[in-house]
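Entry 12.
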Amino acid sequence: MPLPVRASRIPNALQPAHQVSHSVGVQQQAAQHAQPQQRVSVIAASSSSPAAEGAGEAAPAPAIASWRIPLYVFLWYAFNIIFNIINKSTLNAFPCPWFIATLQLAASAAFMVFLWVSKLQPVPQLSWGFAAALMPVALFHTIGHVSACVSFSQMAVSFTHIIKSAEPVLSVALSGPLLGQTYPLYVWMSLLPIVAGCSMSAMKEVSFAWSGFNNAMISNLGMVLRNIYSKKSMVNYKHIDGINLFGLISIASLVYCVPAAVVMESAVWPAAWQAACNKLGETGFYQMLAWGGLFYHLYNQASYMVLEQGVSPVSFSVGNTMKRVVVVVSSVIFFQNPVSALNWAGSATAILGTYLYSMASDKHAAEKKAAAAAKTA
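Predicted 3D structure (tokens):
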């Protein structure tokens, strides 16, 4: 079982990895006017979006046992690799992504309830106002999560991850009209390798399917809108720490996901269930579903455990970029997907683009902070 997480160092439960640096800066500025005990901003922009601006260097890291950071990074990578392999293997045998996506949310919700009941994680203090702010965010989270699962069922894991690396493009594009934020030319230029890499990968991708590509892009859009609307609607609920917020969003997402899954897929569940049991064996099929749900939660919580160790935003962004490389390579090896030289070149270019975008975003945030400080001096 992963160790419980504290609220003090997690930038945001839903923060896109390459954007963690932005939310950390926002939180540090807010902390100057808050109580002495640092609290986590609810979601400045989870997973990968420039929605949360503000930057600056991270606060000095507390003294941490030297073995914890490499251990937690290893667990983060390992859990993510295992999840992707189990998830795709389950989808191959039981091609019902709506059911599986719903089950993963339910597993994460159950895991959080266990942590709360066992007092391993503080129980969040909720209100009707928080619930009202949470539901739109949970809706976009549901869209992003389910669409990704549908895409995984239609294309190779590696190619879906490459398309998912294009999330920053939508983040920058939509943060302008929805948040009124502007970005300098070098930030926009850093997005070009992502677009070029995704295009190169698609040219020779054997598993390419327009439905899979479209669902991956819908997932990107859902996650970006989740990040943006969480920044707009949940700014007043900073007392909810990152891991609790992730659990609460998983629970709230079930309100949307369960009825939608029933409408979209329930007609095919009996036949698909029987076919999966025949292929994997009843016990084997149940185990695949259970392990998939467990590792879905574990890889998310492991990422928060890394952040809680005082890792700098830039280091975390680099770590997240390398994690995508590891997941892509491991899935290609495990599933033995045919990959051309152009596929590899496109994948490398797209992943390099996410790294360059992280660096450009950090530079822009630092410049904004310096400019703000100069005005108040």
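Annotation: DSSP finds 14 helices and no strands in the chain. Residues 341-376 form the longest helix (36 residues).
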